Amino acid sequence: MSDKARILFVDDDIRVLAALRRSLYPQVARWEMEFQSSPEVAVEAYRAWRPQVVVTDMKMPGMNGLQMVMAMRRIGDTARYIVLTGTADLRTAIDAINQAEIFRFFTKPCPSFLLVEGIQAALAAAAPTSVPAADTLADTALDKLPVAVLVVDSEARILFMNRLGGALSACGDGIVMNARKICRASTPADTVRLHALIESAIRNGDGGVMTLPRSCSSPLSVAVSALESSGDATPKAVLYISDPDNHPIPNAGEVMHLLGITSAEARLTHALARGLSLDEAAEEAGITVGTARGYLKQIFAKTGKTRQAELVRLVMSLPVTLPNGSVPGAK
């Protein structure tokens, strides 16, 4: 077997495979590539060939991309998987990240340089090592955050994004990434303002905050800050982007431990943080409204809060433990 890295590409559209073959031809010196239009045949190819990276479409007849990946994982969990999908299939792609631990996903059409970078990162992650690299640990930690993180240079070119950042930018609504990897807003005016904040952060260390309107959802909240370099001469800024429609909250057990309240009080607090009224929270808990009011007074005394809105803001500010590889808001 060759010492070259082995990459398997799977797509039921032979035109897509032909385009991939042409665009990735410069990589033949270092990659051994196989292109399959049938996911069932690709599974058998995986069994015999054991590629390090599999790049797959999601929507395919017979066996879809997620089913194929799960079949490959049952054979041997040694590869990293990258999904190429249309924006209409974004929810399916996010489900794939949750269920099959997909390494990266890109929307079609994907620039070849971006796909090459993703494959290189997957190969690096697949390489055996006794101690996880610091960058790998940092990436994993950033993927667990309930906010999108984008690192950009002075031209607003994206240098890094965590999984939630990738999901938001792939939606193309509010925050988008063009073919040159430039981070933009949905409108020219908002793009100008966003780029001004990035420039201010890099030049003066100021940065700032703004909202990014979306067509069908609540606006995204963005905070732009300078990113201190450590041995890297390239100035950078970091964008922290919060989606109010997909903001996770701690579960009742975490609320109980973090706020030092009882289990019953934590369940009531969790219900209120989810947007239920006190009457609705009481009904859900199977207690009377009077008992719920008594619990609420005890919660206020323990947390130092005096209003329900203040209590909800406190819960929303608590750290959240996310499942492995999950993206907030994905179902």
UniProtKB/TrEMBL annotation:
Response regulatory domain span: 6-123
Phosphoprotein recorded as keyword: yes
One MF annotation (Gene Ontology) recorded for this entry: DNA binding
InterPro entries on file: Bact_response_regulator, CheY-like_superfamily, Sig_transdc_resp-reg_C-effctor, Sig_transdc_resp-reg_receiver, Tscrpt_reg_LuxR_C, WH-like_DNA-bd_sf
Keywords: DNA-binding, Phosphoprotein
Parts forming coiled coils: none
Keyword match DNA-binding: yes
Modification 4-aspartylphosphate occurs at: 57
BP GO annotations: phosphorelay signal transduction system; regulation of DNA-templated transcription
Pfam families found in the cross-reference section: Response_reg (PF00072)
Name of the featured protein: CheY-like receiver
Organism: Paramagnetospirillum magneticum (strain ATCC 700264 / AMB-1)
